[in-house]
Structures are given as structure tokens and as C-alpha cells.
Specification:
The complex is a heterodimer of chains A (221) and B (344). By secondary structure, chain A is of the alpha/beta class. Helices cover 53% and strands 14% of the residues of chain A. Chain A folds into 2 domains: 2-130, Rossmann fold (3-Layer(aba) Sandwich), CATH 3.40.50.2300; 144-219, Winged helix-like DNA-binding domain superfamily/Winged helix DNA-binding domain (Arc Repressor Mutant, subunit A), CATH 1.10.10. Chain B folds into 3 domains: 2-105, no CATH class; 147-217; 222-342, Heat Shock Protein 90 (2-Layer Sandwich). Classes of the chains: A alpha/beta (221), B alpha+beta (344).
Chain lengths: 221, 344
């Protein structure tokens, strides 16, 4: 797996590189700003770019914009965005950039080494990874039944399943987390797809659409 | 103004004395003259001149303060000038009439007097226009410097947030990474590993607390994406269900966005704290020409004290940008906080 890393703070950049190396993941190139990301992506064609949201020169969401641009130029590129903050608007923009191969994690999750490495691998494989903080907020935000969107029709159990889907877990992973059988998980998921009125097709794609519907509902308040 | 007030006071004090003196002198002299007039055989009633000379100033002193009560120093001086001139002119005309008419000789004097009054009025007007101009300039300058101070404050807060982000937060994240690596190396020593995991959890808690602190100082998403995104995120973080609807158009001045954000944030915190179980809240933000209006309503218990420290702090922030804050909180029907902010 080829990974590039864009982080303006040397302390964190070195930390992440060392951590990944110990897990036998090679960071093939590093950069400190958005333009650097575009350059190393074009030069190295990595599987995944790990990108800090806040980069110079604007120190706002430069990293996110650059990551979206890199993905537009290199459609197969997996993008794992790291941030100090959970912002639904960033998550939505990231997920709207295309199905799969995206992730959004709080920076401190890097310290959970196995989960972090797992997330990098899932994003590289085209999966979707959302921080559990993002997910738990979304679950709460989706709870008020003010307007009748498909989200409001979900049962608490189905919301839980959707939350785990958003974290990027597989059916087996969800079954394990909820201590139910994989068959029960599949039933919940097809019920979610039905309630959200998602088109039949690739299952992975529908999973992302389900999460996206949910994000939109909560981003709109 | 103070000089004018002093003159007015002095005039008021001396007026009573002058008035009683004038009345006494006029009465005594007029009476004596009438006696003499009677004793000399009732010719043409010449003491009329004495009555005239006494009564005119009495009348002037009587009415002048009524006419000038609301005037300050400069205008008072002009009024006195004009009154005295009119009085002199009138006396001249009367003397001319009593002396049997003929060529109107008081004309030259009257014209000169009128010209002087006109000149005085003109000068006063220019001085006052200058004053007004000065005041206007002062208001413009104060408005500008106050806005400048608010912008500097906003930048400072942003800088503190960035310092936290790049400093303490980053170090804690690095610490948490190192602890994570140590944890991986301690695979065969479960007790040590658990200790390191607990340390990492502490670091994580510190990061979360710093994050909340930094966001309370200057929410990054507000600066990046504006009010709508920041308020949607705020609603999502609230402890109670919140419906958010924002139609603010394009980006507003940072000071205005920041005030609107913090009013909504504080109101939602209050709603979550006081509205009671099962309560929900709504946030509506709309732009009406040069006015941004934000309404935060909850269905809670109401009875909020507008003089409480939180709400009066909000009021200060709102008033610093010339905005208006209205809090309606009748007991039993929930609380509605409305803020109106000027935006150009």
C-alpha cells in the first residue's frame, strides 16, 4: 500500500510516519500544504492520501479542498482526512466527492494504532470511514422527528446500524458490535435502504448513499 | 455649554434684582414727574417719556428669559443682542413719532442695528455648523475605532484558537500517538499496556476538553464556512434536539457573524440547561436588507432572568455592534431570544 501524508506540523508528521512504519506501512511522500499534496499525488500515484484539514496558507480548510481536488484529478485515490474538529459540513463535502475511498477522523484517533491502520486500509480498499464522534453526533442530530425525511422513520436499532455503517464497518463487524447474528444485521440494513428509498445496485454504493442521506438530513438541521 | 449655562444662571439671578430696581425707579420717577407735570399746569403730558423709558426695559426683562429659557450661551447672546436692538429701534421710532414725524431719521441707525444682528446670526450659524460637523466626525471616528477594536478582538481570539490548535492540542495529539506506539510494543505485557492505554485515554480527554475550549473561543468553522455551517454544527452538538434554519445570504462581517453565533450558542446552552426534559429548540436566522435577525426559541419552562449574568453578557456583545437583543420568557411558555444586528 502506498501512502502519502500532508501535515504542516512536523511533530505530528513525524509521529504519524513513525507509527505507520512500525505497522509496515510506508509513507512514500510527505508535504506540508495543499499544493504539495497535488504535487506528490501526481508524482507518486498513492493508494491513500492522509491529509490534515487545516493547512497553510489559509489555515482554514485548505487540506479538505486540496484533497477533493486531488480526488477529482485522480479518481481512484483514497482520502483520509484528519481534523482536530468534528464538522458535519466537512464530512458532507467529503462524502459527496464520490462513493467510497474516503475517511474523516479526529487527529487523536491516530493514537489508537490498530483502529487507525485499519481505517487507512479500509479507505485504500475503497471503504468509507467516519469518526465515531461524527457518527454519534449525527445519530443525535437525526433524532428530532420534526420534518418527515426517511431518516426519521428509522428505528433506534436501525440508527445504530447506520451509525456503525458510517464508521465503515462491515456487516460482520456490525453484527459483532451489536451482538446479533449477521442475518439480523442484513435485515436491518435492507430495511434502512428501503426506508431511505435508495436505488438497488451495488451494496457498497448504497451503504455510502445511506450515510450520505443521513449526513444531509443532519447538516440541514 | 458650561459657559452658556453659567451666563444663563447669572442672567437669571441678576434679572430679579434688575427687575425690582427698574419697577421701583420707574414708579417713583414716573409718579414724581406726573406730580411736577400736574403742578406746572397740565401741559402736554411729557412724563409719558419717563413711563416709556421705564416700561420698555421692564417688559424686556420680563419676557426675555421666557423667550431664551431653552437657549444656550451663544444663542442667548444673540437673543439679547436682537432684543436690545429691537428695543432701541422701537424707541427711536417712537421718539421720531412723538417729535412729530418728518424725515425718517432713525432709518440709518435701524439699518445698522439690523445689519449687526444679521451678522451676529450668521457667525453663530457658522460656528454651530462647525460644531455639528465636528460632532459628526467624532461619531464616524468612534464608530470606526469601535469596529476596529472589535475586529482586533476577533483576530486575537482567532489567534488564541490557532495557538491552541498548533501548540497544546498538537502536542497532546503527538503524545497520544507516542502512547499508542508504546501500547503496540507492550503486546506481551498486558498490565503495562493497560497503564499506557489509560494514559492515552487521559490525553484523549485533555484533547477533547481543549477542543471545546478552543471552539468556545473562536469556532473555526465559523471563520471557514460562515454562520449557516457553524450554526448547523452547533445545533448538532446541542444536548437537546434543535431545528436550525439559516438564510443569511453571503458572508457577513466577522464581528457580526461572531455575535450572532455566540448569542445562538449561549441561548441554546441556556435552553438545554433550563428548558427541562423532552424540550426542543429552534433557531431561525434570516436577513432582511441591512438587518440580520436570529431567533432562538425553546418550549421549556420560561422565566429566564434578563438581568442574569449570561444574558446581560450577551446584551453587551450585541450592543457593541449596535444590535438589539430582546428576551421574552413568560413562565410556562418557553423562552424566545431575538437578536437584530445591523449588517451592511
Amino acid at each position: 500500500m502506498r501512502v502519502v501524508l500532508v501535515e504542516d506540523q512536523a511533530l505530528l508528521r513525524e509521529g504519524i510516519v513513525a507509527l505507520l512504519r512500525e505497522q509496515s506501512i510506508d509513507v512514500v511522500a510527505q508535504a506540508e500544504d495543499g499544493e504539495g499534496l497535488l504535487r506528490i499525488v501526481a508524482g507518486h500515484h498513492p493508494d491513500v492520501a492522509i491529509v490534515d484539514v487545516r493547512l497553510p496558507p489559509t489555515f482554514t480548510d485548505e487540506g479538505l479542498r486540496a484533497a477533493l481536488e486531488a480526488r477529482r484529478r485522480e479518481p481512484g485515490l483514497g482520502v483520509l482526512v484528519l481534523s482536530q474538529y468534528v464538522e458535519p459540513v466537512y464530512t458532507t463535502e467529503l462524502l459527496e466527492a464520490g462513493s467510497g475511498g474516503v475517511g474523516y477522523l479526529l487527529k487523536e484517533r491516530v493514537g489508537e494504532v490498530r483502529a487507525f491502520v485499519d481505517a487507512v486500509e479500509r479507505v485504500a480498499a475503497g471503504g468509507t470511514v467516519l469518526d465515531r464522534e461524527v457518527v454519534s453526533r449525527l445519530v443525535r442530530a437525526a433524532e428530532p422527528a420534526g420534518t418527515e425525511t426517511g431518516i426519521d422513520a428509522l428505528t433506534p436499532k436501525e440508527r445504530e446500524v447506520l451509525g456503525l455503517m458510517a464508521e465503515g464497518r462491515t456487516n460482520a463487524g456490525i453484527a459483532k458490535a451489536l451482538v446479533v447474528t449477521p442475518g439480523a444485521v442484513e435485515k436491518h440494513i435492507s430495511s434502512i435502504f428501503a426506508k431511505l428509498d435508495l436505488p438497488t445496485g451495488g451494496d457498497d454504493h448504497r451503504r455510502v448513499l445511506a450515510v450520505l442521506t443521513w449526513l444531509r438530513a443532519s447538516a440541514e438541521g | 455649554m458650561i459657559v452658556g449655562r453659567t451666563i444663563a444662571d447669572a442672567v437669571a439671578r441678576s434679572r430679579a434684582a434688575a427687575l425690582s430696581l427698574l419697577v421701583t425707579v420707574t414708579a417713583v420717577v414716573g409718579f414724581a414727574a406726573t406730580m411736577i407735570w400736574a403742578a406746572t399746569g397740565f401741559g402736554s403730558y411729557w412724563p409719558a417719556w419717563i413711563w416709556f423709558a421705564g416700561l420698555v426695559p421692564i417688559g424686556l426683562f420680563w419676557f426675555l428669559p421666557e423667550l431664551t429659557a431653552d437657549l444656550d450661551g451663544r444663542r442667548l447672546r444673540l437673543a439679547v443682542h436682537a432684543g436690545l436692538s429691537a428695543w432701541v429701534a422701537w424707541i427711536l421710532v417712537l421718539i421720531w413719532a412723538f417729535a412729530g414725524g418728518g424725515p425718517f431719521w432713525p432709518l440709518v441707525t435701524i439699518v445698522v442695528l439690523a445689519a449687526l444682528v444679521a451678522l451676529h446670526a450668521l457667525l453663530l450659524r457658522q460656528v454651530e455648523a462647525g460644531d455639528e460637523h465636528e460632532l459628526e466626525e467624532r461619531v464616524v471616528e468612534l464608530t470606526r475605532t469601535r469596529r476596529g477594536a472589535l475586529d482586533v478582538q476577533a483576530q486575537e481570539l482567532r489567534r488564541i484558537e490557532r495557538d491552541l490548535h498548533d501548540g497544546a492540542q498538537a502536542r497532546l495529539v503527538a503524545l497520544s500517538m507516542q502512547l499508542g506506539r508504546a501500547e503496540e510494543r507492550l503486546g506481551d505485557r498486558p498490565e503495562d499496556r493497560e497503564l499506557v492505554r489509560a494514559a492515552r485515554a487521559e490525553a484523549g480527554a485533555a484533547i477533547a476538553e481543549l477542543r471545546d475550549l478552543a471552539r468556545g473561543i473562536a469556532p473555526p468553522v465559523l471563520a471557514d464556512r460562515g454562520l449557516a455551517a457553524a450554526l448547523a454544527a452547533l445545533g448538532g452538538r446541542s444536548a437537546i434536539p434543535v431545528e436550525v434554519e439559516v438564510e443569511a445570504g453571503e458572508r457577513l462581517a466577522p464581528a457580526i457573524e461572531s455575535v450572532a453565533y455566540f448569542v445562538v450558542a449561549e441561548s441554546l446552552t441556556n435552553a438545554a440547561k433550563h428548558a427541562g426534559p423532552g424540550a426542543r429548540a429552534s433557531v431561525r436566522v434570516e436577513r432582511d436588507a441591512d438587518l440580520l435577525r436570529a431567533v432562538v426559541a425553546d418550549e421549556g419552562a420560561g422565566g429566564a432572568d434578563p438581568a442574569g449574568s449570561g444574558l446581560s453578557g450577551l446584551r453587551n456583545r450585541v450592543e457593541a455592534v449596535d444590535g438589539k437583543l430582546v428576551i421574552e420568557s413568560p413562565p410556562g411558555t418557553g423562552t424566545t431570544v431575538t437578536v437584530e444586528l445591523p449588517c451592511e
